[in-house]
Amino acid sequence: MTSPSPEPQTSVNPFEGVDEEGRMAPAAYDAILLASFGGPEGQEDVIPFLRNVTRGRGIPDERLEEVATHYRANGGISPINEQNRALKAALEAELERRGINLPVLWGNRNWAPYIKDVLQDAYDTGYRRLLMVTTSVYSSYSSCRQYREDLGMNLLATGLDKKLQVDKVRQYFDHPGFVEPFVEGLQDSLAKVREQLAAADKADGKIEVLFATHSIPTADAEASGPRDREFEEGSAYVAQHLANARAIMDRVPEAAGLEWQLVYQSRSGSPHTPWLEPDINDAIAELPAKGVDGVVIVPLGFVSDHMEVIWDLDTEAMETCSELGLAAHRAPTPGIHEKFVAGLVDLVCERTVENTITDRPALTKLGPWYDVCRPGCCANLRGEKPTIAGADSTVGVQ
Fold this sequence. Notes:
Structural class: alpha/beta
Binding site for Fe-coproporphyrin III: 78, 147
EC number: 4.99.1.9
Helix content: 25-40%
Pathway: Porphyrin-containing compound metabolism; protoheme biosynthesis
CATH class of the largest domain: Alpha Beta
Binding site for Fe(2+): 214, 308
InterPro entries: Ferrochelatase, Ferrochelatase_C, Ferrochelatase_N
Order of helices and strands: EHHHEHEHEHEHHEHEHEH
Number of strands: 8
């Protein structure tokens, strides 16, 4: 058993020492918390998992079963948990390679291992300060604040809010470790699409690149990011994706002169609520009229090949391409690419006293992002909840 660290000094504001750029002073941590969405691991798990995801929205099981077909078609198993196990192992290996003695814990928001249980186990083991790395990289309610809320609510639920401090690394959308695997992926996918076109006697065929990400309600998109900054299209979420797409295109000589666009997928909820558009399948349907013969799909919004990538892109989008006679290839997500794993460890080292990295790289002008979220950043439009790791947090701040 690890020797317990001192109890946090709850009379001290943990955000003292944050500089004007939102950087937090390095600290001593006991462990890393890899936090993710979670997913079912069998047919019997599917509906309980979807109930967790939609808790509080009053959605009947009949509606949930419509979404469940995506999981049913894959044996009721989401790949995300196995991917997180692989990422955890890769992080542990990279930490060991560098001689960094920080254990990696793993907890999910919506399925076992639940964050609540992991926090309790961490405290019982003797850990007193954790540094959270999430598998959601952009700024929006669902990909940042909701994680901070889940941690805040679970710390309160376990009574650990004054005993266990949890901080969070910055959103890393434009960190080289996240972006560069997509650069390699775009290069490889372009080559594969050109091979397909050559085989179809269309060697000079026109190719377009579609950068795909999760759609979110337009209101949430407009509320993303801090309130004291202006963003392209009025949204940090959209602006971050657009900036990343440009950075990737600029780094791939083979993509010079190609048209590209940002498209969205995985829409859910009421059809009367505006969500970000265009939907990827609608965008693909318009390509033949533009004289496009081939498509590269870059899953820019995702860290790993989980269900929304496998279903929405590899199944539905590819079927649309096939029906329209378009050559197509989907680039890989970062997964456990060595640059991605090394980048995550670099993000940890930005925040630690030992093995400190002072350089904070960012491949767009929007970053590097803040260690501590600004007041009102990525607001919860459905009502505020207890949060951690923000300048307006209510848990862990005195």
